[in-house]
Every structure is written in structure tokens, then in C-alpha cells.
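Dear support,

I submitted the protein below through the web form. The confirmation email said the job was done, but the results page showed an empty box. After a refresh the structure appeared. I'm attaching both so you can tell me whether what I see now is the final result or a partial one.
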Amino acid sequence: MTTAVFTAVLHSEDDLYVAECPEIGTVSQGYTIEEAVANLKEATELYLEEFPLPQVGRPLLTTFEVAVEGAVSEAAYA
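What the results page shows now:
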């Protein structure tokens, strides 16, 4: 068995953290970051058991800025 490294993108939604793996498309959630990532790992492993993927490369991850009207706190996007 080999291991693969995937990306977890997280955001908070009400009292939960939502975690998504953009390479695979799996999504999960948890009350803590650790729980959300652990649940995402389990969901991704189960998905890959049914739908094995060919060798995939790592995505390019970057950020960008947009102009937003109104007073929006940076903390809202953290």
C-alpha cells in the first residue's frame, strides 16, 4: 500500500468546520479543525477504495484580491 498527500481546504460554517479535498472532490465536516480533517481523510479513503484514481499531481494553490464594497473584516475570511 502506498500513501498519497492531498490538500484540505477548510472554512467555518456556523459552529462547524467544513473540509474539502479539491483533488478528489470529497467533503466532510467536524466541530474542530482536527475532527474535520480526520473525517475528510476517512471520507477520501473510502471514496478511493471504490473509485481508484490514476496518478494525480498536486494542484497549484494561490490567493488573489478582489474589491469588496462595504466594511468586511478580514477575520470573516480566516
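Response: this is the final, complete result; the empty box was a page-load delay. Helices lie at 33-50.
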